[in-house]
């Protein structure tokens, strides 16, 4: 099969890239290995991690359309109370982590709706569930990608003038021989204050296998996981307690803190102010990432809230899942850890009344769309990253370094984002690394490989470091990256120029920035002044 643009990976960046290229009139092939498009928002079941100003600015127009579409879907199809239906910034789950916590399946429906016109016209072909297994190259160009069906013996050879790697782990980089890095760079390489003295390529952030639960009458205890005894007794050196406990390090201070857990608190959803600038929201783990607040819906519609478990105790940092021969084993152990956390919650977790266990907790695999009840895909925080024309480093955006000057402003900005430099415990034994960040820009140079001409990153595989990946890996930034990659492919096809030439030629760069601005991509953070 052939198209103008091939997007491999159907996460948020991949969907945004496919939409952008199809909207521009290009024929597009989009592949995805899991049953749902949307990546971290859907198959990985992670509610949006967003900055404090997301309702006003700091995202592309199409990402805003996705968020509005999610709210509209609830208003059209769900039995909301009149009060919640009138809530302008409706937060269906009233979770504290995000202003728009919601069930993953709703995002799937909205994303499919956004893609539907292009699928119907034949401009967009979506191949699911397919994953890349081989890449053909000719010098510095990718000339073909072979994808294999997940469940049967079926392979398809795909070609396109531009190939976008939107996979969660940068799968096309090793297959194509594109230069890339993994793990922790050294301070000598990057000059970053938080970097180690020596590079640690196998030191990567934890992966997590999320799951959804509610709390209803009855005993819903799952079978005891095979590795439960190990996980119940497991105590990381820096954790301050067993991993399976209510105690863990505070990400920003590393102080050992104890969190609460109260299923179905009778709270008012409209009083939840999900602003991580004011409150990280993880004090009560039930409401932290709640994705359905029963009081948002008419009486009896939901027997319980539904909450999404993406908590410190499910972080799996026993080994990396990239560039190791036993990646599948580690991913299986990560799923075992998550099931062990659930079993601990149901049987041994301390309750406020002095008892133990919450047998009424029920695994909601129907919410995550999986056979085993867990998320379809692991939440991958850190990908392989291209060796780029420009690599974003900590001192570009660190609040401690930049202060009142704000983040570095790039002449080749192609978007904006904001999130603290938020690194979870890692496979090298590191605790949290959490550094204040300034609102930042996305440089085009971070999307251009140093050598390869027609392969573009479209997700977490851009030119960041282990440290700055912690800010650039979140939902709205990934979408922005993917959208710009799709628009860049179209621009280069139309002009007969290379991505490298677009960045290095002032006239072309200005034209491209004008083009993406017209499509609703914000290039700079606003400066607000009186008049």
From TrEMBL:
<dbReference type="InterPro" id="IPR036188">
    <property type="entry name" value="FAD/NAD-bd_sf"/>
</dbReference>
<dbReference type="InterPro" id="IPR005288">
    <property type="entry name" value="NadB"/>
</dbReference>
<dbReference type="Pfam" id="PF12831">
    <property type="entry name" value="FAD_oxidored"/>
</dbReference>
<protein>
    <submittedName>
        <fullName>FAD-dependent oxidoreductase</fullName>
    </submittedName>
</protein>
